[in-house]
UniProtKB/TrEMBL annotation:
InterPro entries according to UniProt: TAO_STE20_kinase
Gene source species: Arion vulgaris
Region annotated Disordered, chain positions: 201-221, 259-278
TM spans (from-to): none
Protein's gene: ORF103935
Positions in coiled-coil regions: 138-168
Catalytic activity: L-threonyl-[protein] + ATP = O-phospho-L-threonyl-[protein] + ADP + H(+); L-seryl-[protein] + ATP = O-phospho-L-seryl-[protein] + ADP + H(+)
Top-rank taxon: Eukaryota
GO cellular component: cytoplasm
Record's protein name: non-specific serine/threonine protein kinase
Entry-linked PANTHER family: SERINE/THREONINE-PROTEIN KINASE TAO1-LIKE PROTEIN, SERINE_THREONINE-PROTEIN KINASE TAO
Length: 278
């Protein structure tokens, strides 16, 4: 009975622990799924924000480039003014040192040289503006690509850290489940050992009580036999004679019962005969 009760209690404890651990595992699984979903939503929002930022930069880039182009053209105008001042000073100097009949030819050549230099200077500044625009576009593309790669790497690293953390929590939970099962097994084993010890003690106690009862009964019977021997001896009888008399009494009882059965049989026979017609 005690063993059946122990086994029934043991089954209930194991089932309760298994159900509790299953519930914890399901809760942990849902929690981890929610965390990963939140991380995914965060990644999508971060990437969308970066795309908006890049689109705004592209939108504002012409304004920035226009300001830089105006600055370059301003520098070009300043350079042209400087060239014109230098040309005027050079022209005055040449006219002072050149004969009058040659001044027209010299001034024409000087004017052509000035125009050539101004054209070259203009081409140089236009090339500078074109190069600046190209560099800005390339630089913007490279910067935005670097931003996108950096964001992608950071988000991937955050996701990997989250997965590693969740794996660590899962391993810790599994280890906790194993410790709980081990504690339950030890408790059940200890309870079974105590139960078996108690049953053994009860069996030993029962055997001892039975042995004591048998010893007491044998001792009492021995005392009664001794008392009987003493009493029969005091009455002048011997134990052998008493036994013999007892046996004779038994034989007499058997003989009497046999005679009675014989008489009963004869009576039945006579009765049958007397009622038989001649």
């Amino acid at each position: 009975m005690l063993v059946r009760h122990h086994e029934s209690t043991q089954d209930l404890e194991y089932k309760h622990l298994a159900a509790l651990q299953k519930m914890k595992d399901e809760q942990l699984k849902k929690q981890h799924e929610t965390e990963r979903d939140n991380q995914t939503d965060y990644n999508l929002c971060a990437e969308a924000d970066l795309r908006k930022k890049h689109a705004l930069e592209v939108k504002h880039q012409p304004r920035s480039l226009k300001a830089k182009e105006i600055q370059i053209r301003k520098q070009f105008n300043e350079a042209v003014k400087t060239q014109q001042r230098q040309y005027k000073a050079l022209k005055d100097h040449i006219l002072q040192n050149t004969p009058k009949n040659e001044q027209k030819t010299v001034v024409k050549k000087l004017k052509e040289e000035q125009l050539r230099k101004l054209a070259a200077l203009g081409d140089q500044y236009e090339a500078s503006i074109a190069e600046m625009l190209q560099q800005q576009n390339v630089r913007l593309d490279e910067t935005q690509m670097a931003d996108a790669n950096e964001l992608r790497n950071r988000l991937q690293q955050e996701l990997e850290l989250l997965i590693a953390y969740q794996s660590k929590i899962k391993m810790h939970t599994e280890a906790q489940h194993q410790r709980e099962r081990k504690v339950l097994e030890e408790r059940v084993s200890l309870r079974r050992a105590l139960l078996e010890q108690k049953m053994e003690e009860e069996r030993v106690t029962f055997d001892k009580e039975e042995q004591d009862k048998r010893s007491q009964l044998q001792e009492r019977q021995s005392k009664e036999l001794k008392t009987f021997d003493i009493e029969t001896t005091a009455m002048g009888l011997k134990a052998v004679e008493v036994v013999q008399a007892s046996l004779e009494q038994v034989d007499d009882d058997i003989s009497i019962r046999g005679s009675m059965l014989s008489l009963s049989g004869s009576s039945s026979s006579n009765s049958f005969t007397s009622h038989t017609p001649l």
